[in-house]
Queue: 4 jobs
Job 1
Amino acid sequence: MDAHVGPATVAGRVDAPPSKSYTHRALLAAGYGEGTVVVDPLHSADPAATGRAVEAFGGSVAWDDDAGEARVTGFDGRPETPADVIDCANSGTTMRLTAAAGALADGLVVLTGDESLRSRPQGPLLAAVDSLGGRAEATRKNGQAPLVVGDTLDGGQVSIPGDVSSQFVTALLMAGAVTPDGVEIELETALKSAPYVEITRELLADFGVETSRTAEGFAVPGGQRYAADRYAVPGDFSSISYPLAAGAVAADEEPVVIAGARPSAQGDTAIVRVLREMGGDVSWDRDAGELTVGRTSLSGVEVSVADTPDLLPTLAVLGAVADGDTRIVDAEHVRYKETDRVAAMAASLDRLGASVTEESDALIVHGDDSELVGATVDGRGDHRLVMALAVAGLVADGETTVRGAEHVEVSFPGFFETLGQLGADVDVRE
């Protein structure tokens, strides 16, 4: 499907979608226990994949979209050996978190996914599971899915690089809590995307699971039980970044107001700080959970995405309409997402008329030399590229066509409806 976006101003009030990161973790945490009602979950393609994995392990997930709930019956710390392969579709979080969960099974668990997911690195997690007493291997011996895990995870001490994916740490903490020995994680390199581990630790505490920071990394005692009757998912700041950016570059005389923006451990709340540093007119009522943003002239900044890789596409679009250069640094790990987001945003913005310099670890957008003009750009199967490029279309001269519009279903199923609600000129069709 293609999204056709014309230049427009936006204004109005919209609700933030629930957090994808929290929903994944809440569904699996509920699975590790006897069961939980997850309130305000994100029912989209990626969390649905995690829900199917919980069911494959012997639990159940009943989505009730009308009530805004997912009622989870858990497998109580010991996953069954699935009757079939677990298809994680396009969800890297599902694969990594359930690879560690699957290693707790007595038998063997096979995990696969789509072509994009089968190209993403899993080797460090496989090595960690193997060293903790489980079986873990890639069927093609290349550190990529399909994966085979199982034979019961004992726990113990393990070292793992921190600069590939923080999801490896999350997976080991979640599974380690129900192992006999617990897990102590030593980070071999500095941890990238560290706030995502804090999301995990915050959620685990809500489920009664103890974790700790150590001098070397993290630790989780074994023999623990997951328990929470209800768990409420906060709004997703990765997804909030798109209507927030739309307001910053295209708001009418009235602002854009985003409800459901409650404070949490999400690193992507940094979008509020960065937008203010660029000169954006944004206020955050933390008690009410509301963001208000108006259009102002923006100035380029230097910003690290070491902990916020999902913000790179949004920041690149903001840089294209800002004065001066916007330097997005510490971005090498962002190349290993659903697509190489550094290269993809460089190519797409160039096609739209922006001046961009791509480096191995950085993306530099030269706002003074950029004048966005409508063009056809490819979302490359990446939901975050699709949404960021649609925001760019609001301020491009002429119509912008974004291919692959259906991929917003991964994290923000109502994204284009939300843009339309704000007054955007957007038409999605085959």
Note: The longest helix spans residues 237-250.
Job 2
Amino acid sequence: MTDNANSQLSEFEQKQIRRVWHKEDWYYSIVDVIAILTDSARPSVYWSNLKARTKKEGFDEALAQIESLQLKSQDGRMRQTDTATRQTLLRIIQSIPSPKAEPFRLWLAQVGEERFAEIENPELTIERVRSTYRAKGYGEDWIEQRIRTDVIRNELTDEWSERGAQEGVQYAILTNEINEGTFELSIQAHKQYKLLPVKSNLRDHMTTLELALISLGEATATLFHRERDSHGFQPLKKDARDAGNVAGKSREMIEEEVGHSVVSSENHLRLEQPKETEEKQIEQLEMFPEK
């Protein structure tokens, strides 16, 4: 690869291309790709025009593979977005005259291979997460608890998906029910107590005990869903509230023994920020979303 291609490949790694794991593959935001390849001020308009043109060129098969999926927009809301797999994107960018096309193909191949390697060996994902948090300055005990918390979280969201909860607003409501029952604080109030920015990931600023308590609440919610065979948002919400109350009672017992609140105002904003490449790893992994 030439030096220029290397430079452009690095540029793609530093820019945000939204993506989502769907049907056992990565689906990338087409307008994000167009914004990088064309430097267009209005990539959505460019994409609309390109779609019309590619239909005339006989790219119907590629266009049929495009999926409209929910991705987080700049305003923080989940919005329907045209997405495509690596293979479909490669077909689309054939119609985009750009000197950046070839290094972009290489970038797609690289990130795709990373994901498939992680599927074959999940420990690669976990180890990258460990390395990233170490670089930020977190201690080993906290990191291991954070990873365990995420494993429990993923098991719970799998149950929500299978039992009829809608990702986005409903996941957020269910999560808030558990947090409020566990700590007597909504997620928003909990962030305010820790003096965190609104868009911060609350769990990245919890103590190991807070992480253990929220894990207890979420593991209990999973148990209730299965034992009660709950389906639909309202039954799931009741389970989440009941599970939060179970974790809340455990918190109260601990506080009675130690004589003070275990809900900490501590945050980790003081920790060293990761290098840019490590920030990108977190962004690409998206292992800890607050759904």
Note: Residues 3-120 form one domain.
Job 3
Amino acid sequence: EAAGAAYRFVWNLFCDWYVELLKPVFSGDDEAAMAESRATMAHVLDRIYELLHPFMPFMTEELWAQTSSWGQPRGGLLCHAEWPAPDFEDTDAAAEINWLVDLVSGIRSVRSEMNVPPAAIAPLVFVGAAAATRERAARHDPAIRRLARVGEVGFADAAPKGSAQVVLGEATACLPLGELIDLKAETARLTKELAKNADEIARIEKKLGNPQFVAKAAPEVVEAEREKQAEFEEARHRLETALARVRDAAD
């Protein structure tokens, strides 16, 4: 469990978000911003090495030695370093970045669910956005455009026709997709996928509902069927959500 939590922090937060958000800084010409970002990244990497050391001691010890010229001076071996302890928290900054992550993640999910081509760029329209949300959108406009693959970011009193919507706090983020995908064709595709999914779930339920199968089959075979059932049920939920989005956009 601890290893999984450490993995999620390093891969899903540090690599997926922090590094991605810093790329424009390092490709720009603001030397002060680059120096600050490098120092912050070096500090975070040191804490990551300390955090991961119990799980992968040899690799982290080597990385600790190879990066000794970065960031703050080190007193010796990583195994002798103090265990990292939380000593700083900026709740306002955390709330703002969490808002950005939720927005981009929501838009990516919508694009994936609705089969929007990766190269397609749609405008992003906020409806019902408070002043704080408008300010956040303006501050993070370049990151939103790059990470969510959207074009112009604007605000309106009502959702544009043919929009997929993501609720984010008091505001609704709308993606007008009517011109990017064939809504009727996508509705037909998702309906067909749901029918196939229902057939698979019914087949597995029939098998698991057979007492002879459950009693005579190897336990790992029964467990595999239950895992497949859970996967198909999860897929059904995703398909139903996607179909609802497409139908809402078509209205």
Note: The chain has three domains: 2-79, 91-176, 183-250.
Job 4
Amino acid sequence: MATSNQSLLLKIEQRVSTLLKTKTPKEDLQDMYRLQKEHTPHLTQEEAEDYVILGLIETHKDHELDHLWYQYKNALEEGVTEAA
């Protein structure tokens, strides 16, 4: 399961790289997550990450990133369910 999540994260980073035309998507995402958290300290880290990705999806109207994020969140949820 962890490998599947890592694979999805890599695909998400690659898609973000394409959308933002950046060669450092992982670092750029970390910066965006940090800024989101600074501006909305009441959010959990997971919620801040959701806001950033959902903002990118909305801004770019990108169905591919939307699908990848949906798959990733479902995989995380399934992992939590299996662990319980």
Note: Residues 41 and 54 are 18 Å apart (CA to CA).
